[in-house]
Amino acid sequence: MKTLLFSCFAMLWAGSAIAHSPLETTSPAAGSTVSTAPTEVLMDFKGGIRLTKVTVTHAGTDSVDLDLSAFKGFISDYAIPIAGFGPGHYQIDWRGLGDDGHAMKGTFSFTVEE
Q1: pLDDT block averages, 10 residues each, the chain of length 114
Q2: Model pTM score
Q3: Distance from C-alpha of 42 to C-alpha of 24, rounded to nearest angstrom
Q4: pLDDT at 21
Q5: Is 34 helix (H, G, I), strand (E, B) or coil?
Q6: Buried b / exposed e across 53-63, counting CB within 10 Å, b at 16+?
Q7: So what's the pLDDT on residue 38?
Q8: What is the pLDDT at residue 51?
Q9: Cα distance between residue 90 and residue 34, in whole Å
Q10: How many CB atoms lie within 10 A of CB 40?
């Protein structure tokens, strides 16, 4: 009985773990330092996600919500235009809905050299 219960729990846990669409890579890469300010932020997810909000905070002061109107439906690769910022620390906060219906959020940062 314990084995059956454990097996059922393990299958449920594994199914929910692989159902999400985690952020796999970004460009600029999370934690990186780049020499020039990017014109776009690339976000590649493991599966489809519908981003609902992406905010850029520059040097801890200026926060801007990025325009997501060009992105419709659940997609896995985003190239979001970003402009108007110079050197300094950038923090990207994002929220979205995975194609499995789960709400997701995350953050990453990078630095542009002076």
Answers
A1: 48 47 95 96 96 93 90 95 90 95 96 94
A2: 0.79
A3: 11
A4: 82
A5: strand
A6: ebebbbeeeee
A7: 94
A8: 97
A9: 11
A10: 13
Distance CA 97, CA 74 (A): 8
- pLDDT number for residue 114: 86
Amino acid identity at 52: T
- For the record, the structure tokens of 99 come out as 């194609």
Round to whole Å and give the CA distance between 8 and 34.
47
**So what's the pLDDT on residue 60?**
79
Rg (Cα) of the chain, in Å, rounded?
Answer: 17
Coil, strand or helix at 6: helix
Backbone angles phi, psi at 39, to 5 degrees: -95, -10
> Token match 């929220």: residue?
95
What token pair was written down for 58? 């520059």
Encode burial over 12-37: b for 16+ CB neighbours within 10 A, e otherwise.
Answer: eeeeeeeeebebeebebeeeeeeeeb
Contact 86, 36 (CB under 8 A): no
